[in-house]
Amino acid sequence: MRGLIAARVGMGFLTLAVISALLFFATDCLPGDVAAALLGPQATPEALATIRASLRLGEPAGLRYVHWLAAVLHGDFGRSLATGRSVVAMLRPRFQNTLALAGLAAIVAVPLALGLGVAAAMRAGGRLDRAVSTLCLLTISVPEFFIGYLLILLFSVQLGWLPSLAVLHGGMSLAQRLGAITLPTITLVLVVLAHMVRMTRAAILSVMSAPYIEMALLKGLTRGSLVLRHALPNAAAPIIAVVALNLGYLVVGVVVVEVVFVYPGAGQLMVDAVGKRDLPLVQACGLAFAATYVGLNLVADIVAMLVNPRLRRA
Amino acid sequence: MSRSAVVVAIILTAALFAPWLAPYGEAQFVGGVWDPPSVRHLLGTDNLGRDMLTRLIFGARNTVSIAGLATTLAVGLGVALGFLAAALGGWVDALVSRGVEILLSIPVLISALMVLAALGNSLAVLIATIGLLESTRVYTIARAIARTIVVREFVAAARLRGEGLVWVLAREILPNALPALAAETGLRFSFIFLFIASLSFLGLGIQPPAADWGSMVRENAPAINFGLIAPLYPATAIALLTIGVNRLVDRYLAAESRPGAA
Predict the structure, then answer these.
(1) Share of chain B above pLDDT 90, in %
(2) What residues 168-207 of chain B have any CB closer than 8 A to a CB of chain A?
(3) DSSP string, B21-62
(4) Which element (helix H / strand E) includes A296?
(5) Which of A52, B19, B81, B159 has the most CB atoms in a 10 Å sphere around its CB?
(6) Strands, E, within A91-241: which ranges?
(7) What pLDDT does residue B200 have?
(8) Strand partners, B45
């Protein structure tokens, strides 16, 4: 058991190492002169020389990757090409904001999705089940920004209940902060909810057709204890897998939602950096997002192993 | 015809015949900023005073054609590699599969942003990047389908007859995999279409002044604060096409799985 978990953690780190190499070489091995490509035709020779020196373009690519990785492992992502500030200093507060938003959305979405999924499975084909599946079909097939702007139009323009922009600044009270991130949170919840609800419902329904459930029903158990005590534990593994997958999706979906609500998170930072082709900042943001994503998948696999005894021996 | 087929057909017609259908030019300034809908401008005007309906029609052309090209690349590459891996097995399969697994472990949006930062966002880079990234998804499905076909007797018979690899892939495996691949192509198109719309919305996809639905949402977004629904027109168009394609695929799959279907 311990060996399996250790092997899975090792795989996670290996994946991260390969991803770091991909991220580095994807952004750093431009054809031709990187400095000229970044600065465009109007660049002065001095500016070109500065860029070449700061990206260590004189060295071979493999050596540059080793230097870069060593610095990254010491928490140094270099300096932003656009502002000259330390990348870590720029990224840290933004990434904390992103994690706060995604975390809040997860805290709301996961219990809600499990509850709705179980309720829909208990009365499959009922009114609640049909309402939930219609909502799911709608939210799954429209882009994040559609949901976002619809909510803004409804709650901040028509009703005037909530601010349309999620701009945070120092002097805000906790209540003001919560008010500002309510709409982005609801948007994110709607984005990830559908998939989790459908999988929870499907996982429980597939267990419900098993003979032992029929046996329990014939013994005279109530529907509630049948679903919660007998079906849910056996449906846990696929549910956990889909929850983790969607938490991973949350980390990425947050990028678009941040732009809709002008929320000061890492996604917005990365999009701006890509527009300015600020490579060190893009690499740092990419690595932060990828690491969170890989980490969540890792946790999901380990929890699934712990929950389902059959996976421990596999 | 079902409603989803009508919606998809209307959008495809708009995409094909945009210059003849659109009442005004793609980047022609014809009115004030965000004029309300009127007889001259059925859906009003956009943030720069261009006709909203015209922009939507040309947007269909740009967005659908780019998504179509990227889908063609993704499906072509994914199916070719997936079939090869399934038919050859051994180290080819292991090598390609591990590579695809690593690419799948990075969120597509993050990979795409990295590449666009490095290579800039020209149309060629956009199509190639999205096609390559999405081909990994097609690869896993094409390989899984082909593996169930490779082991059947008629493939062994063809190999024993001395047919070459390409013949076996194209004449034995492809026809049997076609229904599943058709459904996958439809789903992949709606994914890629939505993905390009998101990139354009972030300002990193199709560049102005070309009209496309994602950038139109972005450009008209400030209107929402005045209670205008301008950004919701292109956003609704995106949603309609995605829902339409998804439902068509569902119906196709349901028809395929019905007993008695060919």
Answers:
(1) 12
(2) 190, 194, 197-198, 201-204
(3) H-SS-TT-B-SSTTPPP-SSSTT-B-TTSBBHHHHHHHHHHH
(4) helix A279-307
(5) B81
(6) none
(7) 87
(8) B51
Contact across the interface for B227 and A153, Cβ inside 8 Å:
yes
Q: Is the pLDDT of residue B73 over 90?
A: yes
Distance, in Å, from the CA atom of B163 to the CA atom of B180, rounded to the nearest integer, reads 25
Per-residue pLDDT reduced to its tens digit, B168-193: 888 888 888 888 888 889 889 988 98
Beta bridge partners of B50: B29
Q: Which of B106, B121, B229, B245 to mutate to test the interface with A (most CBs of A within 10 A)?
A: B106
Per-residue confidence (pLDDT) for residue B122, from 0 to 100: 82
State residue B79's pLDDT score. 93
A12: closest chain B residue by CA: B105
Distance CA B244, CA B247 (A): 5
Check CB contact of A15 with chain B, cutoff 8 Å.
Answer: yes
Backbone angles phi, psi at A140, to 5 degrees: -75, -30
Mean pLDDT by groups of 10 residues along chain A of 314 residues: 80 82 71 60 72 68 79 78 79 86 88 86 79 79 81 76 69 71 86 83 81 84 80 78 78 84 86 82 87 83 74 56
Q: Is A63 exposed, middle or buried (0-12, 13-18, 19+ CB in 10 A)?
A: exposed
Whether the per-residue pLDDT at B43 is higher than 80: the answer is no
Nearest CA to B150 among B216, B71, B200, B89? B89
CA A157 – CA A163 distance, rounded (Å): 9
Distance between first and last Cα of chain B? 21
Contact (Cβ atoms closer than 8 angstroms) between residue B168 and residue B155: yes
Q: Which among B74, B78, B83 is positioned nearest to B143, based on CA atoms?
A: B83
Please report where in the chains the tokens 């089940």 appear, as a residue. A129
Peptide bond into B37 cis (omega under 30): no
Interface test with A, best of B110, B196, B224 (most A CBs within 10 A): B110
CB contact under 8 Å between A270 and B113, yes or no, is: yes
CA–CA separation, B24 vs A52, rounded Å? 48
**Half-sphere exposure (Cβ direction) of A46: Cα atoms closer than 13 Å:** 0
The C-alpha R_g of chain B, in whole angstroms, comes to: 22
Q: How many CB atoms lie within 10 A of CB B137?
A: 20
pLDDT at B139: 92
The sign of the CA dihedral B237, A109, B114, B144 is: negative
